[in-house]
Please model this.
Amino acid sequence: MLEKLKEEVFEANLDLVREGLVIHTWGNASGRDSETGCIVIKPSGVSYESMKPADMVVIYPDGKIAEGKYKPSTDAPTHLYLYSKWKNIGGVVHTHSSFATSWAQSGRAIPPLGTTHADHFFGEVRCTRELKPAEIKNDYELNTGKVILETLGKLDPLVLPAVLVYNHGPFAWGKDVTTAVYNAIALEEIARMAFYTSLLGKMKPVSKTLLDKHYYRKHGKDAYYGQIK
Model:
């Protein structure tokens, strides 16, 4: 079932490796089928070198396995929770990419220090609070999803399509799994730029005027970046 989505999710997971966001088995990508609500996700601990599209695991919205010979990613409860709360997303990506994870481990949000950031993220990329001991001991992955929702509040997830989980790493999402990977790539690059910019002594964000200009010229009803479709 969902053979096309399996192929897309498989390729998305490989893209994470190709783009240098994942080594070993340190990451996962999933996609949601809009008709059934099922998600397709990478199997847990299976190497990218040996993985095939048929190895992707199909999960019902309640977390039960619909199809697959492997266990799903251990982060599946986080993905499922995000999908259950955000109806306008169709893909979720989690990595331990070096620069974004460094910001997460420091417990610091990534400020919008320049227009490259503003082109992709409407404001700082937020970092969650630290999970409480009870939240770690019980339903850890589910509580990771909950703290992500808590951090973004009522903000449209497509306006700020990434977050840093404190002491853990980045999650990104999008309207589909391909866009989620794109956002994860953009996140790692702006995290890298912000790291070096901070080393050079600047931590003052761009002005609201410049942030708005760069974000809205690429996003929203009045966007004018690119070609007319």
About this structure: The longest helix spans residues 177-199. The CA atoms of residues 43 and 115 lie 37 Å apart. DSSP finds eight helices and seven strands in the chain.
